[in-house]
Every structure is written in C-alpha cells, then in structure tokens.
Amino acid sequence: MERSGGTGERSSDGGTGERSGLTAFVCCCLSGGGNAVGVRFSNRELDPLWGAAVRFGAAALVLLAVMALMRLRPPRGRALAGAVLYGVLNFGVTFALAYYALVRVHAGLGQTVLALVPLAALLLVVAQRQERFRMSALAGTLVAAAGVALASRAPLQADVPLLSLLAVLGAVVSLAEAAVLVHRLPPVHPVTMNAVGMTAGAALLFAGSFAAGDTWRLPRLAATWWALAYMVLVGSVLTFVLYLVVVRRWGASRASYVFVVIPVITILLSAWLDDEELTAGLLLGAPLVLLGVHLGALRPGRKPPPKA
C-alpha cells in the first residue's frame, strides 16, 4: 500500500504539528538559501533555462527513484492532474519567468519583489476562501520585504524593462498559487507530489530552453558540477519536500515566509563562497526580516488552516 499519510497529512495534535512545521520551516530556509549561489555558479557556464531544466530534470529522477524505494504509488485521477498542475506552476512557469526576468533585473530588486510571495499567497487564499484576511500577515510581509530590500541593496531607482518587471511579478503569483493549490488537492505524499511536479516542470523548462535557442551541453568546470549537485539534492529534492510539509502544516500564507528568510541566508552564503561583500544593509535588514516573519508566521495564537 502507498504510505500517503505521515508527512502528507496535517497532524491532529496542534502542538506537535506546530513544532514539526517550525522544524521543517527552518530546515527549508537553510537548505534553500544556497540555491541562488548555485544558480550564479551554474549560469557562468550554462544557459539559464537549460541549467534550470537540467537541475529539475535530475531532481525528478532522484525523487522517482526515492518513490520506488519507498514503494509509493503514483497518484491517479484528480490527484495526478493536481500534481502536474502544481509542478507546472511551481517549477515550470515560476522558474521560466524568474530566469527571464533576472537577465535584466538587478538581483537585489528581484529578491525584494519575490519577498512579496507571502502577500500574494495571503490575497489568493482569502480570494479562494481558504483563510481569513489577517492584518498581521500584511504587516509582516511589508516589514520583511523592506528588510530584504535593505539586506540585498535593491536599487530604489533603476531602469527596469516593463516586461522583466511583469515577469518577476508573474513568478510571484505563480509561486504563491502553487502553494495555495496544495490545499485544494487530495492528500499526496510530498515525495510523490514533487516527483510528478518536477517531471512536469522540467518538461516545460526543456521546451522553453529549446525555444530560446539555448546550447545544450554538460558542464566542464568542477564548480558547476558541485553547484548542480547541491541544487539537485539539497536545493530541489530536500528543500521542496520540506516546503510541502510546511504548506500542509501551516497553510500557504504562513509557509510562503520561507521566501523572505532565504535571501538573508543567500547573502551570508554568497559572502562565504563567492566573496560577496557584507554591508551594513544586512545588519539593518536581517532584523526587519525576522520581525516580519514573527508578525506574519510565528506570532503566538495561530490556528492551522481548515481542510479544503
């Protein structure tokens, strides 16, 4: 039988579910923080969409192998369609738009806009009647986004092409809607959901890479191979399995605060691995990020979202 319970279902014990959700949240932030650094190394040798397609294609193969070892059955019917749609949104559309935008958008500005994912998720869950509107969530998002802007040195004035800005905003909405979608689907094990989703997303990225005329070749540099290995095993397989656990435990609007903590982790790792300068902005921005996460996701008194 498929072991579709466990991490795929929310715990009936509120305290246990909250603690396991917090543990998964922290681990997800730490493991996901290295992705942007890995992408930077990968993009120095590989075309962006091709690198993304290779990353998620390899991660999908790993997850399919894990499925086989765990004897998890593939989803069927509505669950299968939902997993495919989740993958198209969370991996295909989101990363295609993000990679396109970051060609012309300053990385700091891109990270700041992506920090608005919790606000987008909040508006979407309210519109789809999964949760009630919370002023604390709105305040938390705005405070955290301001902290990311300071920490990443996002320019206040920059010549950003309209299409690139729209692409970043599209990535924000796509990422948020993918998390909201999870609660509208039949319960699926996080490994299975990501295996099917990454397969669908990778197929879309391969098609986009082909259409963009990318050069399809394997890396030659050891640094690129190490970056891909990290992004596949830790940044994709581990991070997104943990992210789905957080979404199931906490709901989309709270889980999406992962995307405001990750930039701070990224800056610290980039300073260590890629000699990026640490500035006073990080000292000012990091506390704002933590305050925003506390207001929007960690403040006492949160109740788990109702089952869809």
From TrEMBL:
Residues 20-152, 164-294 form the EamA domain. It is a multi-pass membrane protein. Keywords: Membrane, Transmembrane, Transmembrane helix. The chain crosses the membrane at residues 21-41, 53-72, 79-102, 108-126, 138-156, 162-182, 194-213, 225-246, 255-273, 279-298. It is found in: Membrane. InterPro entries: AA-Vitamin_Transporters (IPR050638), EamA_dom (IPR000620), EmrE-like (IPR037185). Belongs to the EamA transporter family. This is DMT family transporter.
